[in-house]
Amino acid sequence: MAVTSEAAEALYGAVDLHCHSGPNPLLREFDHVEAVADGARLRMRAILMKSHHHNTVMDLLAMRPALEKYETKAFGGIALNAQVGGINPYAVAMSLRMGGKAVWFPTFSSRQHVAHGPKNPPMAVELPNRIVEIADDDGKLLDEVYEVLDLIAENDCLLSSGHLGFAEARRVFEAGAARGVQRMVVTHPNHVVGATQQDCIGLAGMGVYIEHELGAYDPAGKIKWDPADLLDWIRAVGASKTVLASDLGQKGRPMPVDGFLRVGGILLELGLTAEELHQMACVNPAFLLGLDG
Hints:
- This protein is of the alpha/beta class.
- Helix content is about 40%, strand content about 10%.
- The strands form two sheets. Strands 4-5-6-7-8-9 form a six-stranded parallel beta sheet. Strands 1-2-3 form a three-stranded parallel beta sheet.
- Helix 5 packs parallel to helix 7.
């Protein structure tokens, strides 16, 4: 059995940077309060709630009375898809001033996702979509991109490249670093984004963290990637610049805690150390959310 006491001990205090709880236009298995309540099983330190379509800080403020009773803290942010106006500094400023901790560049609305991403997820509400560009016809990053990066730097929050393709993601990270952004992450580089291990070694050298989604490697889930491949990515990039997150919450998929425990246990069986698991699930994401500074 992959779930072991060693895995649980290494994962105590975990921080999940990629939880898709509800409410949401996409069908969800549980809401933000249920996610936080379940986090008690691992004494999770924090969970970052992500929506492709709206500012999740609003959800959390509305749910605050129910959330306050739990030790696990819930944080929100905004993804710059068509539904919030794309690269919209005004929407970003509102989210961050209300307590947002993260800005995701376009996910479902990125050119890369439209060309290479999953099609037709189960929807509770059908929403229109369009490609959100980050550069003009001459290839120059939009002025709004720089405005958003300045807001991220000023608020010392997390910059995620979302589902941008690797080349676009690298440009955003380079521009962000030049403007003082300290906390940067690329999510599921081997899914939609199209980045190689060598690409990510280069990003890590710039200070970018490489996030992998446990939901894709959980044998109890709908997606069943080989955990040995995940370990290979960890060994290539290094635990010091790798983050493990759940990317769970979708209807019919496991709870994040179960994904952390099962995949964490498998990784230990494959030769990962407990210290490395703790680094990737607890220490690195805590830094990215600014919990230690």
